[in-house]
Amino acid sequence: MKKKLFALLVTSLVLLSNSAFADEKDTLIVAQAAEAKTMDPVASNDVPSHRVFLNIYDTLIQRDQEGKLVPALADSWEQVDPLTLVLKLKKGIKFHNGNDFKANDVVFSLTRAKEAPALMSFFGDIDKVEAVDDYTVKITTKQPFGPLINYLSHKGSCILDEETVKAAGEDYALHPVGTGPYEFVSWRSGDRITLKANPNYFGGKPVTENLVFRVITEATNRTIALETKEVDIAYEIDPIDIQFVKSNPDLVLLEQPALNISYLGFNTKKAPFDKKEVREAISYAIDIPSLIQAVYLGAATPANSSVPPGVPGYNPNAKKYEQNITLAKELLAKAGYPNGFKAKISLNDTGVRKNIAIILQDQLKQIGIDLEVEIMEWGAYLDKLARGEQDMFILGWTTPPECDSALYALFHSKHHGSGGNRTYYTNPKVDKLLDLARSSTDQEERNKYYFEIQDIIQEELPMFVLVNPFDNAGIQKNIKGFQLDMESEHRLFKVGK
Questions:
Q1: Are 190 and 441 in contact (CB under 8 A)?
Q2: Which residues does 397 contact at the CB level (< 8 Å), separation at least 6?
Q3: Contact 149, 139 (CB under 8 A)
Q4: Mean pLDDT for all residues in the chain
Q5: CB 355 within 8 A of CB 328
Q6: In the chain, what percentage of residues exceed pLDDT 70?
Q7: Minimal CA–CA distance to 11: which of 224, 226, 242, 193?
Q8: Contact 464, 428 (CB under 8 A)
Q9: Less Cβ around it within 10 Å: N or C end of the chain?
Q10: Neighbours of 245 (CB within 10 A)
Q11: Which stretches does DSSP call E strand in 120-191?
């Protein structure tokens, strides 16, 4: 491992220019595998973007380290009737530009969110948002909406300054303004986003003055950057590098099970993936235990649902698949492909997903499927999936402790494409069950619907959920205050050296 890292050091140093900040106590440099797609919270629902702009913006409600919902910009909230939620806002908070935070900003921000294609699954059931007075907001839903409180902690519901957004127009995402712990400074595309501390933050001044997010797509280069102290924190340490980080006395590896999945998606509107037997054949051709050992080195568990274990509503009895090559070949023949076929598998440029694709390429050869691997830049990849141009694809999904989030966006026919349903799956019965589950406020009743939905999905297989991977980060040993977040969206304003 040492030799491998040393051999790549020169390449890394070229990629990681301007690293002088790394030893300065007033600057924290964080490396992640993909660039943020946007700084506008309603424009995209992706983790790399969330990780950056959760430092710029605040939501009305947020989750603490244990997953409990706690006040953020809202002081309190009350469900006054099945359709009406009233929130009391904190007073005296200012946006980074000095404007006062008031109810009109909440009305503006949540109205944008409910109309945004990328967020329809979270906020589309909101009917209207009204300002009762400057510090009271009333949200009315079209029907009882069980997940609403949970979704007000989602990063898509970050509160923006109405005046700034309207003035900036289409350029807003390049000059974001929030109430959060850090203010936006600059964005050098493909390289870094730089933020500076908000001295007037209502949650207390950030520990570190400057926060820099670096884009280092190659996993080994992120580890090298950590070793050479060019970055202070590196997200998504590649499994093959984990032991190296653990054995380095200057580094610390943090690792924990997370509420996320890694899945193989099928474009169900394109042949041959429109046939259930083809999707089943592929699922039976895959050897998950060997994938976990080869790719994750044990840092993942087999999955049987898009709902991660630990989320209320998870169905532990949903169908599990084990490799069965004979059955896979029979299913392909039944579907009309006795000799297999050629297809393309698309993914973004991360070490883990590339390794998964290579293994799938090898395993699917056993049943006659010839896979071409297509590796794309993150933003272009998401755009391709949104247009429905993919055959098969590898992607992940992170879920808060709310079952609706793991099912509604991924499988409801209203959300084809950028809304989350990138398999273009359509099933009227599943749509109905999803609608019934989110219109109930009784968790036991909701769980019955969710269990049935998971059973149907595991039978019809619009996606084959591969694993529940662990989340990790490598940090310098002098870093204080950093904790992994259960949704992989790590908070940094209390982190320092």
A1: no
A2: 260, 261, 263, 306, 406, 410, 420
A3: no
A4: 93
A5: no
A6: 95
A7: 224
A8: no
A9: N
A10: 24
A11: 126-133, 136-141, 182-188
* pLDDT at residue 14 greater than cutoff 90: no
Q: 121 with 114: CB under 8 angstroms?
A: no
57 contacts 41 by C-beta, under 8 angstroms: yes
The helix/strand/coil state of 157 is: helix
On whether the CB atoms of residues 158 and 53 are closer than 8 A, the answer is yes
Residue whose tokens read 């070793």: 227
Strands 463-476 and 251-257: antiparallel
Q: Which two tokens stand for residue 459?
A: 């039978």
CA atoms within 13 A on the CB side of 142: 8
Residue 20's pLDDT band (boundaries 50, 70, 90)? very low
User: Would you tell me how many other CB atoms lie within 10 Å of the CB of residue 284?
Assistant: 22
144 φ/ψ angles, rounded to the nearest 5 degrees: -50, 135
Q: Are strands 136-141 and 126-133 parallel, antiparallel or unpaired?
A: antiparallel
Quick one: three-class SS letters along 306-374? Answer: CCCCCCCCCCCCCCCCCCCHHHHHHHHHHCCCCCCEEEEEEEECCHHHHHHHHHHHHHHHCCCEEEEEE
Contacts of 95 (CB under 8 A, 6+ apart): 101, 105, 161, 164, 177, 178, 179
Q: In Å, what is the CA distance from 124 to each residue of 87, 114, 439? A: 19, 5, 13
pLDDT at 232 over 60: yes
